[in-house]
Design a protein that fits this description.
Layout: E1 5-9, H1 16-21, E2 25-27, E3 31-33, E4 36-38, H2 48-56, E5 61-63, H3 68-81, E6 85-89, H4 97-111, E7 116-120, H5 125-140, H6 145-155, E8 159-164, H7 169-173, H8 179-188, E9 190-196, E10 202-209, H9 211-224, E11 231-239, H10 243-256, E12 258-266, H11 269-275, E13 280-285, H12 290-298
Parallel strand pairs: 1-2, 1-6, 6-7, 11-12
Antiparallel strand pairs: 3-4, 3-5, 8-9, 8-13, 9-10, 11-13
Helix pairs in contact: 3-4, 5-6, 9-10
Length: 299
């Protein structure tokens, strides 16, 4: 029997099969494509292939944060049932969703005692998803919601995620890159490599020429964040309809470090809207925090 409930927003991009198997509740983050609203969760009303093909063909996707009322409704339900619950939420550095959760929780606590723990993942897509998988493991080991929440609050700082994209203009539209830099990079064939900063914002770290060089750089960034004898349990690779590149990156990772599981997944529409088709992400638990990584390699 589950000792506590795990609730996530759909940005975490974990496969529906995993979500169902582990009894995880998902709060859908709405998006629209060319003005048509989709609010039932990713890939329920449109396939991933059709979504990314539409973006390639000029369609515009827009995303929204979760309605605060949905948090209030969910928190109230858990409080009334006396259930402990852990909510893992999209990075506060990218969205106001976490702040909305805090506001909702403060209102619910005025009416009822509850053991609800909202956690700012400081990540997105499977950077967020990796924390969910860790929460599931702790629950299976018999940890309480409070113990798991405290552990995740510390562990999330060593969850590293690196990204590369195919078209810099998507980052410009999302306010992550100046138009001049985006145009210059696209013309010169520059491929950026980005990561999540300690505060959960998305940072442009380096630029290289060509896709292969970007994947190689991501692999080297993984390797240098680990101790020499570290064996990783799980590495997550997510892509926006570029499976071949994801498989190339997986092979690079397996050749570079000891790892038990390398899992490739399709990225959902929320972060996918801001990275565009052809994006690849690499997510893992490092032997140093993000802050330590930044000071060591980019200070």
């Amino acid at each position: 029997m589950n000792s506590f409930s795990i609730v996530v927003d759909s940005n975490c991009d974990l496969p529906p099969e995993y979500i169902q198997e582990h009894g995880i509740e998902v709060l859908s983050m709405p998006f629209d494509l060319d003005g048509r609203a989709h609010d039932l969760g990713y890939w329920q009303e449109i396939s991933a292939k059709d979504y990314y093909d539409a973006l390639r063909n000029g369609s515009v996707a827009k995303t929204s944060q979760i309605n605060p009322g949905l948090f209030t409704l969910s928190f109230t339900e858990y409080a009334q049932q006396g259930k402990d619950a852990l909510f893992l939420i999209l990075s506060s550095g990218l969205s106001n969703t976490y702040q909305s959760a805090l506001v909702a929780l403060s209102e619910v606590k005025k009416l009822s005692e509850c053991a609800i723990y909202p956690i700012d993942s400081l990540s997105a897509t499977t950077g967020h998803g990796l924390l969910v998988m860790q929460a599931v493991k702790k629950r299976e080991e018999g940890w309480s919601a409070a113990e798991t929440a405290a552990w995740l609050e510390e562990k999330k700082h060593s969850c590293l995620a690196f990204f590369t994209v195919d078209d810099l203009m998507y980052l410009h539209r999302g306010g992550r890159l100046s138009k001049l830099s985006a145009i210059a990079g696209s013309v010169l064939g520059v491929k950026p490599v980005l990561n999540f900063a300690p505060d959960g914002t998305l940072n442009l770290k380096e630029k290289v020429r060509g896709r292969k060089a970007a994947l190689e750089l991501m692999t080297s960034q993984l390797k240098r964040s680990l101790n020499p004898n570290t064996e990783l349990d799980t590495v997550l690779i997510t892509h926006t309809d570029c499976l071949q590149d994801a498989q190339v990156l997986a092979d690079m990772v397996k050749a570079a470090v000891a790892v038990r599981h390398v899992i490739i997944m399709m990225m959902g529409p929320i972060i996918g809207a801001h990275l565009g088709p052809g994006a690849v992400t690499l997510v893992f638990e490092a032997d140093m925090t993000r802050e330590e990584y930044e000071k060591r390699f980019y200070a």
